[in-house]
Write a structure and sequence with these properties.
The complex is a heterodimer. The radius of gyration of chain A is 13 Å and the shape is globular. Chain A is mainly β. In chain A, the strands form two sheets. In chain A, strands 2, 4, 5, 6, 9, 10 and 11 form a seven-stranded mixed beta sheet that branches. In chain A, strands 1-3-8-7 form a four-stranded antiparallel beta sheet, with no helix packed on it. Helices cover 0% and strands 45% of the residues of chain A. The relative contact order of chain B is 0.34. The chains are: A mainly beta, B mainly beta. The interface between A and B is medium-sized, with 29 and 27 residues.
């Protein structure tokens, strides 16, 4: 089945450590996104990518980095500069033309601090 | 800057009741509005997408309406079931070619058997 796979489901980070969250899609979508969700809050956009080798900062990009070397993959690195990384991270994708297509989401990665 | 508000934050109804969830947004210049469902600890499932030129969309027991001029959307759920219990999120795409969605904080729905 086509869909978005996020791994791992749970991730723990030590102080000063960088961690990478994986997002893979087999929907042949051009656009991919990373969101952060905190309890009782709406989703906030971290980064998005419209095509391979291109990505743009969202509203809360500080302390995060991404790459888009392949159409299917959009990994997110939470760096040590992100001082409050504990959250639920969601990856999404869309066809990416004209903004009239729905975004499809993975099942998320929950990141906690050790 | 676009802001999206969902009221109420939580709602509890008996099984079988029809219900309405509300979503309001501050900037009426939107490309589309999307309703999602989120189960605890899970990702989002897209329920309905209404383009800016449309007034409503229907899928099964769900009907979403859009009034751009007043900055409002409603999600109507008919004959609610316990399986409908989840958090419902509204998101708007304000365009500018970036496909960015602005989300509300959601309405947590509990349908009591």
């Amino acid at each position: 089945d086509g869909g978005i796979t996020q791994s791992p489901k749970y991730l723990f980070r030590k102080e000063g450590q960088n961690v990478t969250l994986s997002c893979e899609q087999n929907l042949n979508h051009d656009a991919m996104y990373w969101y952060r969700q905190d309890p009782g809050q709406g989703l906030r956009l971290i980064y998005y990518s419209q095509i391979v080798n291109d990505f743009q900062k969202g509203d809360i990009a500080e302390g995060y980095s991404v790459s888009r070397e392949k159409k299917e993959s959009f990994p997110l690195t939470v760096t040590s500069a992100q001082k409050n990384p504990t959250a639920f991270y969601l990856c999404a994708s869309s066809v990416g033309t004209g903004g009239y297509q729905p975004q499809h989401f993975g099942d998320g990665t929950r990141l906690s601090i050790l | 800057k676009q802001e999206v508000t969902q009221i109420p934050a939580a709602l509890s109804v008996p099984e079988g009741e029809n219900l309405v969830l509300n979503c309001s947004f501050t900037d009426s210049a939107i490309y589309n509005l999307q309703w999602f469902r989120q189960d605890p600890g899970k990702g989002l499932t897209s329920l309905l997408l209404i383009q800016s030129s449309q007034r409503e969309q229907t899928s099964g027991r769900l009907n979403a309406s859009l009034d751009k001029s007043s900055g409002r959307s409603t999600l109507y759920i008919a004959a609610s079931q316990p399986g409908d219990s989840a958090t419902y999120l509204c998101a708007v795409d304000s365009g500018a070619g970036s496909y960015q969605l602005t989300f509300g904080k959601g309405t947590k729905l509990s349908v009591i058997p």
